[in-house]
Amino acid sequence: MKYILTSIAILTLAVSAWAADISKTGLSSTPLDQNAPPPRMSPQSNDDLRKARNYPEQPPIIPHKTEDYQVDARVNECMTCHSRRAVAESQAPMVSITHFMDRDGQFLASVSPRRYFCNQCHVSQHEASPPVSNSFVDVDHVLSQPQ
Amino acid sequence: MMSRLKRLWNTLWRPSVHYSLAFLTVGGFIAGVIFWGGFNTAMELTNTEKFCTGCHEMRDNVFAELKTTIHYSNRSGVRAICSDCHVPHDWTDKIARKMQASKEVWGKIFGTINTPEKFEAKRLEMAQREWARFESNDSLECRNCHSEKSMDFTRQSLRASEAHQRFLVSGEKTCIDCHKGIAHELPDMRATLGQSHPPLAAAGN
């Protein structure tokens, strides 16, 4: 009898602890039925210095602000500096030749429609500390490890 | 007919019989002040944001677009209204612009841009007209607030500082050459792609 009572007590405690815990999900400590105060918006980095890629295939990140850049059916404002013809004036890096390639590997005369939306791959950075840590290491670090 | 005109002419040039010289000069002066003040007040009224956004063509298109930009909302709360950029501040230039604007009254009456589709169809033409105006007056309306002499290039980003020193200080370009579409959305400029001096490198090139 005593054994059963103890089991029930432990089970009740465990379930209540779990129930209390499930109401807090993810990174937020706010219960699901409440709105957390929004975090302060951090400014976009704007130092214009090229950053190292973390792995060779990484789309280069944008080292400047892109707030309010118009990229829609009418116009792509990124191209005012990064298009083939604009780089002589802007001295910005030209949009990579891979962006002229369609999905069959054929090079087009202008940027392929599938590469039109720059922000699908290239992003500006914010001056913010990451909310979660991660264990990412550079590929060179992996290569230098003994096999 | 001719004789009546002649009589009027003679009356105008004959000395006044009933009114004193003081009444005519002082009265004329006061009437002049009232007319001049009234004229300018009425003209200034057409320079207000309330007047410009009184029509849905402006309120729902260009004014709505302006609201998301730095010229409407920013950290210091200094903002530009329509006329700050689109109407010259000098009196003679202002009158000239206001006379041109009578064409816009025509457009309003006949609904030239009274639907979003019509507005889109005219967007490039209207934008190019404004760009041409800014280019021909060396971006005067920008410079009413933004003086290159007061620009501290060290406080600008590297990119902005270099570009301003290369193009602005040298006089090679004027503000609008690079800063198109900062207060309103840009039009589709693919039609200008073949031109030797495209207003902006068009999309997808």
What do you see in this structure?
The complex is a heterodimer of chains A (147) and B (205). By secondary structure, chain A is an all-alpha fold. Helix content of chain A is 24%, strand content 0%. The model of chain A has no long low-confidence stretch (mean pLDDT 84). Chain B has 205 residues and is an all-alpha fold. Chain B has 11 helices and no strands. The longest helix of chain B is centred in the N-terminal third of the chain and has 25 residues, at 21-45. Chain B is elongated, with a radius of gyration of 24 Å. The N and C termini of chain B lie far apart (70 Å). The chains are: A mainly alpha (147), B mainly alpha (205). Chain A binds chain B through residues 46-49, 64-65, 68, 70, 72-77, 79-80, 83-86, 90-91, 110-111, 113, 116, and chain B through 68-70, 157-159, 162-163, 181, 185-189, 200-205.
| Elements of chain A, N to C (H/E) | HHHH
Low-pLDDT runs of chain B: 196-205
The Rg value of chain B, from CA coordinates, equals 24 Å
Helix content bin of chain B: 55-70%
* Most extensive chain interface and residues per partner: A-B, 26 and 20 residues
Number of strands of chain A: 0
| Shape, per Cα inertia axes of chain B | elongated
User: How large is the radius of gyration of chain A?
Assistant: 25 Å
Got a strand count of chain B?
0
Q: Which structural category fits the helices and strands of chain A?
A: mainly alpha
Question: What features would you highlight for this structure?
Answer:
heterodimer, A: 147 residues, mainly alpha, 4 helices, 24% helix, elongated, B: 205 residues, 11 helices, disordered C terminus
What's the arrangement of secondary structure elements?
The complex is a heterodimer of chains A (147) and B (205).
Chain A: H1 2-22, H2 79-82, H3 87-90, H4 139-144
Chain B: H1 2-13, H2 21-45, H3 49-52, H4 56-66, H5 82-86, H6 91-100, H7 102-109, H8 116-136, H9 140-143, H10 158-168, H11 175-178
